[in-house]
Design a protein that fits this description.
mainly alpha
Length: 81
């Protein structure tokens, strides 16, 4: 480790250990937020769709069209490489 990295983590072994624990916790929270945010959006859409199915179905059709068009564009670019 460089001297600057040691300075950022603290001067004692306890500071280093606590710094590594905090860094690992931040990485875990980042991973779980990436994993669970889409699931939360799906859950809220389903809950809203129970009471307003006509709005949710039309929204999902529009999203499907947009995602399909984007996927087709990506596939064309990938195939032309």
């Amino acid at each position: 480790m460089t001297e600057k990295e040691n300075e950022d983590l603290g001067k004692t072994k306890l500071d280093h250990a606590l710094s590594y624990i905090v860094i690992a916790s931040m990485k875990f929270l980042e991973f779980t937020s990436i994993l669970f945010l889409p699931l939360l959006i799906v859950q809220q859409t389903v809950l809203y769709g129970v009471n307003h199915p006509d709005q949710v179905v039309s929204l999902l059709v529009v999203l499907m069209l947009i995602i399909s068009a984007y996927g087709y564009k990506l596939f064309r670019e990938w195939r032309n490489k």
